[in-house]
Amino acid sequence: MFQLHPRLAADTFAVAQLTLCELRLLNNCCVPWFILVPRKSQLTEVHQLSETEQQQLIWESSRVAQAVEAISPCHKINLGALGNVVSQLHWHVIGRTTDDPCWPGPVWGCGTAKPYSATASAQLIAQMKKVLRETHD
Amino acid sequence: MFQLHPRLAADTFAVAQLTLCELRLLNNCCVPWFILVPRKSQLTEVHQLSETEQQQLIWESSRVAQAVEAISPCHKINLGALGNVVSQLHWHVIGRTTDDPCWPGPVWGCGTAKPYSATASAQLIAQMKKVLRETHD
What is the interface pTM, i.e. ipTM, of the complex? Predict the structure, then answer.
């Protein structure tokens, strides 16, 4: 039975259930920062997924990345799987712009999160869901 | 014709030619930091690769990650594709330990690179090549 790590649950909003992953939005309005969490509670590394699951992960990552490009003014996508603080396997998909507060550095460990207003997070989640529905195959 | 970005060429050592990617070792002995560069000079994002190429990339990433675990005392792998400074598509596979100088933060943007001795880099590259040969399929 999959259980989302409490820290991930506290810091993110639910967006969608994809085939392998839960898609979440990090509550930090500085950048559009989505997180894919494979529903495999005990895993910590991408290479612990089966080959088919790894292919599904990169596929879902690319769908989300293209959606981030569609719904935000970003011009670069940053992907990453770190897990140094929260070990449960999770995968970051982040839209970057040259005027975001961390550019050109990484967003991890950069400044403190700035929470969304309820309206702003709901709007971004709705936009993401709409694009994902349109690109579903 | 694939051309490695001059900055990547200057900062890394050649390790191996995999099916999709050139594998390189970053000249920074603080952490075992390998870089996969798909031989597609003009691309900047993972989702610009074909679906098959994305599957090959994650496969090569996992092979390298498992090899890093085999040849170094790391207990966590960090993966990432940023490209904020060098836009040519490249993929990081980094072995982390709790006593490395950047832990638990990201390695990108952390401190300055500490070059390997010629012996140390040659030894690490030889170890990586040996493990990759043994796990080739």
Answer: 0.96
